[in-house]
Amino acid sequence: MTDALTDVLRLPPGPVELSAIETDAAPGFDGGKSDGEAALFAMGEELSDLQERLWAERTTGSPRRILLVLQGMDTSGKGGTMRHAVGLIDPQGVRITSFKAPTEEERAQDFLWRIRKAVPEPGYVGVFDRSHYEDVLIARVRDLAPPEEIERRYGAINDFEAELVAGGVALVKCMLHISAHEQKERLQERLDNPEKHWKFNPGDLDERARWHAYQEAYEIALERTNSEAAPWHVIPSDKKWYRNLAVGQLLLDTLRGMDLRWPEADFDVEEQKRRLADGPPVR
Amino acid sequence: MTDALTDVLRLPPGPVELSAIETDAAPGFDGGKSDGEAALFAMGEELSDLQERLWAERTTGSPRRILLVLQGMDTSGKGGTMRHAVGLIDPQGVRITSFKAPTEEERAQDFLWRIRKAVPEPGYVGVFDRSHYEDVLIARVRDLAPPEEIERRYGAINDFEAELVAGGVALVKCMLHISAHEQKERLQERLDNPEKHWKFNPGDLDERARWHAYQEAYEIALERTNSEAAPWHVIPSDKKWYRNLAVGQLLLDTLRGMDLRWPEADFDVEEQKRRLADGPPVR
Fold it and tell me: Which residue range is the domain that position A29 belongs to?
C-alpha cells in the first residue's frame, strides 16, 4: 500500500481546488482505524533504523537532512502529527520549530530571515510547525503585507526551497486538510472538555470566520509553490489516524529514497581492535 | 516498585565510592529484561499525559520545566536513554542539547555561559547530553583548567543549580554507571559491527586509559554537587533495559511530584460556545 499512499497524496501540478479533495477519505490505504494505527506502529523500526543512518551519515560531512513542513487550519492536527508520527523517531535527531506571529525584530527583516535560522542542520529531521507559508496565508487574508509583496513571496519561497534542496535538504511539505465542519467539532470538543480549554483561543473563532479566504489563500499558495523539487502533499486529515499514518509514510518513503548507508570507518579497524585488546590496563 | 526504584537510585549524602555501587544490578525492580521493557512501555501513557499538562501549564505563565542531566563514561548509554526513555515523550515538548568540546568562543567565557543558554524554556523537558559536569570531569582529568578553577566550579555549579531550581526547573541528574569491563564489550561491539563503526572514535581508547582518573573525578563531583535541591542518581547501566526503565521512572516520578493540573480557561467558556454555535457561517 505504501507507494500508492504517497503517490496519491502528492499534489498534481496546476490549479488547486481544495473543496474537490475529500477531507475524510483514506486514499491509498485499505483498512480502518485500528489497521492504520497498527500500520503506523509497524513503521517504527524501519523509520528508526533509517533515521539513525541519516544521523550517522552527518559524521562523514554529508549535508543531507529532512525538513517536514506542516501547515493547516487551526485544529487540523499539526501537534498530533508531531506527537504520533514524528514521535516514532529518536528525539536526538529531531528539531521542531514552531512559528508564531513574528516578533517586532523579525518583522523588520525579510520574511525568510527567521526561517533560514531554523533550517535543520545536516543529519536532522527538522519539523516546521507552521512556516514561511504563513507569510502568504494569514499575511494575505489579514493584509499584513502589500499585495505586491505577497506576490513577490511565492517566487522567493520557490527560490529558497530550491536552494535548500540543492543544499541537501529533502523537503516534505504537508497541508493537513480538514473540513469546516470537522474544525467546528474539534473546537466544540476544546470548549466542552475542561482538559482542553488551554488549547482554545477566542481568536480561533475570528480566523474561522475567514475560512473561505484561508482556503483560497491555500489554493494559491499550493499552486504557486508546488515545485518539482519541493512538491506539496495534501493530507486528508478529518481522520486523525490516517493523517498520522500518511505523514509517517511520507517520512519513511523519503528516508527510503535517500539510499542511506552506514558510514565506513575512517580509522584502521584492526589496529583499534588491537589497541582495545592489548591497550594498557585501565588505570 | 516505582517509589522504591527512585529512592534506591538517589545518591546518599557523603563521600562516594563508585566501585561499591554495582553496575549490573537492577535495584528496586523485581523482574528481568522483558518485564523491564514492558514496564517502561507501560509508563508511556502516564508520562505522555503528565508531560502534556506541563506543556499546557506554560500557557499560564508558569515557569516550571524539567532538566534531565545525563552524564556517564563513553558507551554508558546516554544516546540509548534518550532514544528509549525520553523518546516516550511528545517531541514537541523535548529539547535536547548535546555538549561537545567547547568552541574557542565558549572557552573565552565562564564555563556556565554556554550552559545557561541551553536551559530549557518553561513547559519543556530539557535534556543535557553531557553538561557543565564535563568542566569538572574531563577538565580535571585532562588539566584543562587550573586546580583552583576546578575547585571554584563545584560551588559555582551548586549556586547555578539552586538558582535553576528556584526558577522552576526540576533537575534530574543521572550518572549512567557502567563497569570498565562492560565498556570494553561495548567498544568491541562497535569495532566488530560495521554498522557501528561510525560510533567509534580512536580517542575513546585514550580516554578509556584514564578510566580510574575519571572515576575519581566523578566521585568528587558527585559528592560535591549532591545537593538537597538537585541530588544525583547513580544508575546501574550495564543492563540497558534497566537504565532506560530507571530514567523513565525518574522522569515519571518527577512529573508526578509536580502536581500538574490542566489550566483553567481564561475566557468565558459559555460565551465562546455561543460564538461557535451562532457565529457567522464560515465564509
Answer: 2-278
